[in-house]
Prior knowledge:
Elements: E1 53-55, H1 113-128, H2 148-166, H3 169-172, E2 182-183, H4 188-198, E3 203-207, E4 212-217, H5 219-231, H6 236-239, H7 247-254, H8 270-280, E5 284-290, E6 297-304, H9 305-315, H10 346-356, E7 360-364, E8 370-375, H11 377-383, H12 395-399, E9 409-412, H13 418-427, E10 432-436, E11 442-447, H14 448-457
Amino acid sequence: MSAATHEAATPVAPAEAGDGPANANAAGHAAHAEGHEADALTTPSAIAATSLTTTTTPTTTPTTTTTATTTSPPVAASPPPATAGPGAAGAGAGAGTAPPNIVAPSSYLRPHASRAVHRSADVSSLALTAFPVAPGPASKRPMTPLSPVDREQIDGLRAIRAFLKVRTSYDVLPLSYRLIIFDTSLLVKKSLNVLMQCAIVSAPLWDSKTSTFAGLLTTSDYLNVVQYYWQNPDALAQIDKFRLNSLRDIERAIGVMPIETVSIHPLRPLYEACRRMLASRARRIPLVDVDDETQREMVVSVITQYRILKFVCVNVKETQMLRKPLRDLNIGTRKDLATARMDTPVMDVIQMLVRRSISCVPIVDKDGTVLNVFEAVDVIALIKGGDYDNLNLSVGKALEKRQDDFPGIYTCTLNDRLDTIFDTVRKSRVHRLVIIDGANQLKGVLSLSDILDYTLNSPLGDEEEEDG
């Protein structure tokens, strides 16, 4: 299935629009939908057609949710949106002046042809001139001039980083969205049902006894419950009585990392939020504010890597400058890949997910041809309602239990470039891409974490900028 068609351009827009209201109540527990809001984004000008493809593959009534509709107030920390187009957001006002820490849009553009000629002439003259070299054991070699593609890549990365430093996490939020929060006294079994009914994969936790944020519930926590059951099959009846505040006991029992507690204030720069996610290896981060009157914490929302990257490619036109192919970039996982076959037991795949701290395992045949992908979120569908017998299924049988609206798997090749990948993220809900060759042979996996890490941490050559 080809990527979606291109869309029209507008100035800075929130990454995603909110869901419509839902009227059910979840035993007093509000809930957070990171995932299936209606997309009301407008996008930058069309980019060259991408070779990225998606392979399609062959369901519960809503019950308990609480919908919170909010209107985002103006954020003083954010600069005014640019008038020159979506890519100029955060790059300066329409009058041509740039806010602090923002490089003027003109510096993002390719060098003028005449300037390029002069620069080439300067380099040639330098090469013909003999300069005295200071004595020493190791003289510094002159730096190799960057190619136009390299220079353009660096300018594109610098533009993205500058944008992230002046935009806040609040800017990413849609005007209306659904927030789902679980009280830590909720049964694990009930929380699983709410996730399934709301089509989400994570939710913030709230300790009502202390009125504090208690962490973020993710699919990793349910994988830990599955492991505990597998190691203690006689404890199935006990598992059904587990509450969310018992997850730490389960984690200690099986020796895994505790629940995620990293968070950030909504008015902190997006750049800082990205840094915290990469440092903690989290794929999403809750926004936690403090009430001015009660001085108590309150969870505003949760932003994901997908939302951030989509916000970038909607509003930063310089993503079109990232034209180097993946084969020339140190990005993604290409060695020591975890794979499985259609007849591999589901529990073996779950062990791979937990042991390697990954979110998916490619499914291949005996020749290494990619057939499908088993994702961590597939486990939630298997154990809904407390049916742990499905863990005895093979991967092939387990994948048949996916919902009919599963979008398929997205693939790319090593010849694809980040500009086309950003364009695909802009148009489709992509969380990872499987890297293949022309014969559909597995060559690697490219996650959103990989893209975010490259965008923030890739060296900028002789003009390396400091972290802000």
